[in-house]
Model the fold of this input.
Amino acid sequence: MLKVVIVFATFLGGCSSMVTLPRDNKDALRYSPDIKEDNLTFNANYQALVKCWDEKAEKQKVNFSNATHTNIYSDLGVAEITVSYDNYYYLFIEVLKVTNDKSTVNAYGMGQIGSSNIPNWLSIMRTCAN
Done:
């Protein structure tokens, strides 16, 4: 019986380490991501970069619903791409205006959504910047 309990506890311990919990806000994701790519420089306007990305990228769905959102805050010189569902964030990319023709990109992600989308989406941004 003790062997069964030990095996079951080991199984549960292994399963719990595979689960990634999303963050309840963008700042929490920024400071505690599973995957992070920051201070990437692109020779493109931040608004044009996000608009080009939006046209080319395959969007992430969660529970069969679009969970990918873009926002451009012209007055702040910031654009954001998020993957969120039910008030939880799985991915957050901020695109910051450096000059009219240069942007800095920071990307933060959780679990499979972050690890699969961030490299692909940054590649699309590199293509858009050329």
